[in-house]
Structure formats: structure tokens, C-alpha cells
Amino acid sequence: MCFKDIPHTMNVAVLFSGGKDSAYAAYLAQQHGHTLTVLISIVSENHESYMFHIPSISQVGKQAEAMKIPLILKKTKGKKEEELNDLRSALQKAKDIYNIEGVVTGAVESAYQASRIQTICDALNLECFNPLWQKNQIELLKDLLQHNFEVIITGVFAYPLTEKWLGRTIDTTFIEDVKKLNTMYQINEAGEGGEFETFVINCPLFSRKLHVNQKKISGKHHSWTLEVEIS
Partner of 63 at 20 to 30 A CA spacing, among 14, 39, 117, 231? Predict the structure, then answer.
């Protein structure tokens, strides 16, 4: 659903991974007058979760502090479909405690994610907003720069990406590089095919910029993860 389809503003929860899409979706919700009441982050034990992002999810608390918004952290085993019960539980908690009326997601291309979140929202009588749905990938990256989002790469999972991409900032050079990768290897420019993951260190929602103090890199071949320690 689009924000313009709702005649009034409301309290919303944001499904928040710490990455560019969920943060930018939250920003758009605020720009449309909605109140960002609570963030919901699902911490999955499954590194191949169908629903939830993994790299640096442990640092979302620092982002929540910078946004001055309460955070609900919910752990899940990450088993396909079963993890949806954990998401529903978290949304029910947000509704009970924070009186939310809607949920904002950063879904762009994944019909699997969008449809299942919509089903849960319908069951809980919550509106579901996907403000980035089907947005042009290059336009999305350019919008991030235009609105002063500072975003780093925390995971790469596709050929020919290597550990050298970890920690890179999304800037004009990055956009040109992913354009070339899309032409040569069909890599999605915004990582919507799971090619890379991101972490926001600053944006208009933050009261201060976050700083990366420590980095732990792990992986092999063309699958690498950067775990960051944030202050």
C-alpha cells in the first residue's frame, strides 16, 4: 500500500534490518507524516534466512539509539515459514505495547517477503506499507545520496564480488561500479538478488553519525561478511 492511499497519519512500526532499504523506507514514512513508534528487528540464527538479513544485525541497537526510537529484538531459528511466527509475535507485541496501526517494510523486489508480511499484517489488522516496492534500483541508490544517507557494505555473496567490497561506502563511484556489474554479470545494482548487504551509519533520522570501531571479516571465494562494532 502507498502512503498516499491512507487519509490520515498513524503510528507505525518499522521492520528494521539496519540496512539501506529499511532505513530509507522509515525516512519516507516520516516524511509523509507518520510517527515512527518502534523498530522491529528479527535476529535469525540461519545465515540463509529467506526473510531476514544477517550481517551486523547485532548493531541495530546503536542505530535505534541514534534514531531515539524504541527497539523490539526478536530471535528466531530462521526456519523457512516457521520464522514467520516469530515475526507475528513481534508485531503483536508492538501493537499491544506501542499501539501501532501500520507496518513499514523496505521490500523492493522480494514477492516472498512482501506477501508473507502482508498476510501477517492482515491477520493483525495492521496496514502494510512498502514504499520502495518495484522502485528502479539506480534511482534508489541515487535517492540515498540525495538525502544524505551514509551506507557501507557489510556482506557480498555473488561472483565477482570479493572481500575488497566490504566496508565500501555507497557513493557515485559505487553506483557506476554496480552498473558495470549489472551489464557484465547481471548483478542487481541495489543488491536485491542477495548479492550484497548494507548497514547505515548516518541518515536524516539519526541524531548523530555512527562510527565503525572494529571490523571482523570472514568468508571465502565470493561470499564474505563484515561484522562491525559501532559506537
Answer: 117
What average pLDDT does the structure give for the chain? 91
Per-domain residue ranges of the chain: 3-129, 142-230
Confidence band (pLDDT; 50, 70, 90) for 78?
low
Among the four given CATH numbers 3.40.50.2020, 3.40.50.620, 3.30.470.20, 3.40.50.1240, the one describing domain 3-129: 3.40.50.620
**Cell numbers for 116:** 508473507
Residue 93: what residue type?
Answer: K
Classified by CATH at the fold level, domain 142-230 comes out as: putative n-type atp pyrophosphatase, domain 2 (3.90.1490)
Which pLDDT score is estimated for 196?
94
| Report field, pTM of the whole predicted structure over 0.90 | yes
